[in-house]
Amino acid sequence: MATKHEQIIRYIKGLQVGEKISVRQVAKELSVSDGTAYRAIKEAENRKLVNTIERVGTIRIEKKKRESIERLTFAEVLNIVDGQVLGGRSGLHKTLTKFVIGAMQLGDMMRYVDAGSLLIVGNRMKAQETALLANAAVLITGGFDATDEAKKIADELELPIISTSYDTFTVATMLNRAIYDQMIEKEILLVADILTPMDQTIVLTVEDTIADFNMNNKETGHLGYPVTDLSGRLVGIVTSRDVIGKSGDEKIEKVMTRNPITVTENTSVASAAHSMIWEGIDLLPVVTDASKFTGVVSREDVLRAFQTAQRQPHQGETIDDIIKKQMDVATSDSQAIEFTVTPQLTNQYGTLSHGAMTTLLTETGNRAIKMRKRGEAVAENISMYMLQPVQLGAVVRVEPRILQMSRRFVKVDFDLNAGNELVAKAMVMYQLFEK
User: Fold this and answer.
1) What is the pTM of this model?
2) Taking every annotated instance into account, which residue ranges of this chain make up the domain CBS (predicted)?
3) The domain boundary residue, chosen from 279, 308, 337
């Protein structure tokens, strides 16, 4: 049976996009307390099901799909450009399809403006009204106002008119940056992308016995299973180690590990991998904020995700991506890496930054480990000693030496040379992540 919290989330999901919602409304509609309604609405906001807009209230919004995450809402545009709403405030929750810079004749401009787009324009009154009538929102640059007629049209059509003090070029740059950042965010693998959902997972309950565990283990070969209570809330996890030597009629509840380590669907795969390595576990239950069980992630799932991600083209470049592009293999049979210190890799003094050096070291060590052993390595501890600053334009050679390798750990020593001079030394401890 669904809890009151889950009933409210389901109710919110059933609302039309753009419909307003309030604590009092939910409490009255579903006969729950104001506190229960408030907590559920806050979770819905975390899940991107609703959005609270100043002077409008909380509105049901369309949850963004990961494949179209680079599309912004007009409310996000408002925050990015630090603007004010002149009209059409009730349409801030809507998503824009593209933005058009109004730097041409009106007739030419309108060939690019269509429903759902955002026209960025200065104090061209006719262009503003024409765009609104074409079902496009308007962003006015330079701090100019709109006509009363344009504001009236915006309110009727629920299409925002936003005014900002920034110039058109600055606004376009800011929006491009926001879209670019969201493209990078889209490329980050989340647990939601790789989990095995609940309906495809064998789940034991507190009422099941060790005989049930043994039967499932014999059929599937899996060594661990999540355990839920009768309402579907995760309460533990049971593995083959827990049931060894126990009677078959003993309840799972008696032998399971309570309060297991869990992740949510919005946890990054890298973070889940770190938890698995650090805690020495092979299975992570996935839960909602209310501890409702939704699926599992295994060590094999994480490894497969890492390997797939390495083969995918990147649309947005992170700082790490830019740094890795500078790296060249010294020779085909060598573990050493060479790179040139470009302006992007320097600090405010024009010398190689510690952040760039850390990325270069860990990536060089990863490559050296993969030449010796399959699997993924995660840097756990870094000790670095700068002997002298590395100047802009210098060609640096990073030479790794594997000092010790066990089943779980690898110690790698590094020499960094610029020309014939030793400029830095480092030691990195890696944890190995294997099947």
Assistant:
1) 0.51
2) 195-254, 256-318
3) 308
Q: Which of 324, 280, 291, 266 is nearest to 66 (CA)?
A: 266
The residue to which tokens 């919602």 are assigned: 21
> Closest Cα partner for 204 from 222, 220, 221, 228?
228
End residue of a domain, out of 154, 187, 220: 187
Would you state the structure tokens that stand for residue 348, as one six-digit string?
A: 């405010």
Band of the pLDDT at 432, cuts 50, 70, 90?
confident
CA within 13 Å, CB half, 194: 27
Tell me: do 295 and 203 sit in the same domain: yes
For residue 97, the 8-state DSSP code is: S
- As a whole number of angstroms, the distance between CA 123 and CA 125 comes to 6
Residue 340 CB neighbour total at 10 angstroms: 13
Q: Which residues contact 156 (CB under 8 A, 6 or more apart)?
A: none
Q: Are residues 156 and 113 in the same domain?
A: yes
Total residues belonging to the chain: 435
Task: List, for residues 379-396, the tens digit of each pLDDT value.
Answer: 889 999 989 999 988 999
Q: Which domain holds residue 108?
A: 66-187
Asked whether residue 42 falls in the same domain as residue 86, the answer is no
Is 90 found in the same domain as 74?
yes
**Alpha helix stretches (DSSP H) within 47-110:** 74-80, 106-110
CATH code for position 332:
3.10.129.10
